[in-house]
DNA sequence: AAGGACCTCAACCGCACTCCT
DNA sequence: CAGGAGTGCGGTTGAGGTCCT
């Protein structure tokens, strides 16, 4: 099912766009919408292929694009999502409002990747390079397991997100449908609710033991995420990350109508999940080999927690930062990075995230 | 000041996927 | 089911800018 190159026609222009071309494209889309990209260039009077026009529009001309430097929170969101999703830039971009996948990809390749590498963290695995080496000559089996579990969880999260998006669509076309959807309300049957956001729920339990009154030894393959981060993922899985929501503080705004609450996942209980749900479905519990090692992943490293045992709770960073640092005014990012204070920089990021998550109410899903 | 090295990022390439006929 | 059209996506390229010697 091969496709012919879109620009093989002689006479089509390639390379950088001129302001005139931009203007033509903008004017046309403004007036008619883009419609069929293939037909657009001729209609708009452009000597470009449709693909080129689409790219120019989606990556540059679209009015809802935010350009310029990435904020700290955007940076850490990218890193966390990359740890979870890998090079799936479009998926990452959906969680960074107004940023394009191309921009995120470029930023990763030119900035974040190098920065992580500089810190001795493998940008691919998000683990300290020394860890990667030791696992290579040591427990290769467990590292393979971990990799598989991470892939499994990643795929699972993606499926969750898709489920919610589909439910969203159904709800729009048929509001009553949400009452019947597994992700919907307590009206859903327990069995239907089972395959919902259990992974994230498990993170919740793990990362906010005080609120949930329990503490599990369960360690997610991607347990580099803390509670605040898991809330971002929950929002992501719900297919909606509001503009004011970041990993540092996902809070429902007044303008949002709560429709799906996590505590309304009928039939789901933490015990159920941790115990494998009684139906043997707890693949990641069945292969717990090496779970703890994930704590030694990149977040632990970033937090200056080389032994992953900082304060006995390496994934939360609570109390791991010196007091004077906690009370400091926002630290100048460039100064920290350029001054070789990378750990402090990242500490600042994660500290701000975790502190903002401490006073939150139970997460709410929005449709 | 010159020029080579390095960096950044817009744009391109080509594969993969979905939809439609 | 096959195949074409349209589009999404991730990897790569290369022009232009900046830094370094």
Automatic annotation (TrEMBL):
The lineage of its organism: Eukaryota, Viridiplantae, Streptophyta, Embryophyta, Tracheophyta. One of its GO terms (biological process) is cell morphogenesis. Pfam families: Myb_DNA-binding. Residues 9-61, 62-112 form the Myb-like domain. Residues 128-147 are annotated as: Disordered. GO terms for molecular function: DNA binding. Keywords: Developmental protein, DNA-binding, Nucleus, Repeat, Transcription, Transcription regulation. Residues 9-61, 62-116 form the HTH myb-type domain. PROSITE patterns: HTH_MYB, MYB_LIKE. It comes from the Eukaryota. It is found in: Nucleus. The keyword Isomerase does not apply. GO terms for cellular component: nucleus. InterPro entries: Myb_dom, Myb_TF_plants, SANT/Myb. This is MYB protein.
């Amino acid at each position: 099912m091969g496709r012919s190159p879109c620009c093989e026609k002689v006479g089509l222009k390639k390379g950088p766009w001129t302001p005139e071309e931009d203007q033509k494209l903008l004017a046309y889309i403004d007036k008619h919408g883009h419609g069929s990209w293939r037909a657009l260039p001729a209609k708009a009077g452009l000597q470009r292929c449709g693909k080129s026009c689409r790219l120019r529009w989606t990556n540059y001309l679209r009015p809802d694009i935010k350009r310029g430097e990435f904020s700290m929170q955007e940076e850490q969101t990218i890193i966390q999502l990359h740890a979870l999703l890998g090079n799936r830039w479009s998926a990452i971009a959906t969680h960074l409002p107004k940023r394009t996948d191309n921009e995120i990809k470029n930023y990763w390749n030119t900035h974040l990747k190098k920065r992580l590498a500089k810190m001795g963290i493998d940008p691919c695995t998000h683990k300290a390079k020394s860890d990667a080496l030791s696992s290579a000559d040591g427990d290769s089996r467990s590292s393979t397991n971990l990799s598989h579990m991470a892939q499994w969880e990643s795929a699972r999260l993606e499926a969750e997100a898709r489920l919610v998006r589909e439910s969203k669509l159904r709800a729009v076309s048929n509001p009553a449908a949400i009452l019947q959807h597994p992700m919907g309300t307590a009206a859903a049957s327990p069995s239907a609710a089972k395959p919902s956001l259990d992974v994230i729920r498990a993170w919740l339990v793990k990362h906010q033991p005080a609120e949930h009154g329990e503490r599990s030894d369960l360690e997610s393959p991607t347990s580099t995420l803390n509670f605040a981060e898991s809330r971002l993922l929950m929002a992501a899985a719900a297919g909606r990350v509001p503009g004011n929501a970041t990993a540092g503080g996902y809070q429902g705004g007044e303008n949002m109508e709560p429709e799906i609450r996590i505590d309304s996942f009928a039939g789901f209980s933490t015990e159920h999940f941790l115990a494998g749900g009684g139906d043997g479905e707890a693949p990641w519990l069945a292969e717990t080999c090496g779970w703890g090692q994930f704590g030694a992943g990149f977040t632990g490293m970033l937090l200056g927690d080389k032994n992953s045992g900082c304060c006995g709770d390496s994934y939360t960073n609570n109390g791991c930062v010196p007091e004077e640092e906690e009370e400091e005014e926002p630290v100048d990012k460039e100064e920290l990075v350029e001054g070789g204070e990378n750990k402090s920089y990242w500490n600042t990021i994660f500290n701000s995230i975790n502190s903002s998550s401490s006073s939150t109410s139970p997460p709410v899903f929005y449709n």
